[in-house]
């Protein structure tokens, strides 16, 4: 009696949900790593040049990594690795964390501390609207 052929064995393949994810500070970042191969590969997440924020990171068996209450220091590159008996495949994705621009007004001089770059600049201004997240246009006039 002859049996039907089974599925061919194959090395892992990996697809990330996005190559660059941008989130606001204090929200949740979710990156999905879809892995295929036969036998089914094991998936693991790591941070390139660092460690995962262990108490705020959850990784599920289907390849989803979530970082809760994202902080500025969580920005960077994250790597998904899929492994099976035939090899390994990895993909790297970036996490960008947006922060509020903090403005201090004193005698019509604004000193802005851009937390994502840790820089401080002062300049004379006339404020024409409120400033929120960095992705919004900053509207002010330099005097």
Word description of this protein:
It is a single chain. The chain has strands spanning 10-16, 20-24, 29-38, 42-47, 57-59, 64-67, 76-84, 87-98, 101-106, 109-114, 119-127, 140-142. With 143 residues, it is mainly β. The protein folds into 2 domains: 10-98, Immunoglobulin-like (Sandwich), CATH 2.60.40; 101-142, no CATH class. The protein has a 4-stranded antiparallel β-sheet, with no helix packed on it. Strands 2-8-7-4 form a 4-stranded mixed β-sheet, with no helix packed on it. It is elongated, with a radius of gyration of 22 Å. Residues 131-143 have low confidence and may be disordered.
Q: Tags for this entry?
A:
4-stranded mixed sheet, Immunoglobulin-like, mainly beta, elongated, 143 residues, disordered C terminus
Strand content: over 45%
Low-confidence stretches: 131-143
Residues in helices, as a percent range: under 10%
Helix and strand pattern? EEEEEEEEEEEE
Report Rg.
22 Å
As for the CATH topology of the largest domain, it is Immunoglobulin-like
Major beta-sheet overview: 4 strands, antiparallel
CATH class designation of the largest domain? Mainly Beta
State the fourth-level CATH superfamily of the largest domain.
Immunoglobulins
- Globally, the shape reads elongated
Cα separation of the termini: 89 Å
Structural class: mainly beta
């Amino acid at each position: 009696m002859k049996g039907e052929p089974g599925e061919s064995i194959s090395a892992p393949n990996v697809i990330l949900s996005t190559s660059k994810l941008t989130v606001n500070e204090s929200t949740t970042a979710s990156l999905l790593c879809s892995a295929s191969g036969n036998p089914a590969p094991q998936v693991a997440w790591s941070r390139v040049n660092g460690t995962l924020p262990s108490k705020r990171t959850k990784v599920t068996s289907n390849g989803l990594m979530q970082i809760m209450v994202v902080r500025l220091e969580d920005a960077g590159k994250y790597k998904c690795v899929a492994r099976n008996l035939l090899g390994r495949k990895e993909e790297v994705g970036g996490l960008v964390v947006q922060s509020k621009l903090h403005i201090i007004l004193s005698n019509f001089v604004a000193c802005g501390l851009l937390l994502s770059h840790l820089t401080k600049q002062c300049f004379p201004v006339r404020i024409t609207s409120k400033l929120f997240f960095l992705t919004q246009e900053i509207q002010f006039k330099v005097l």
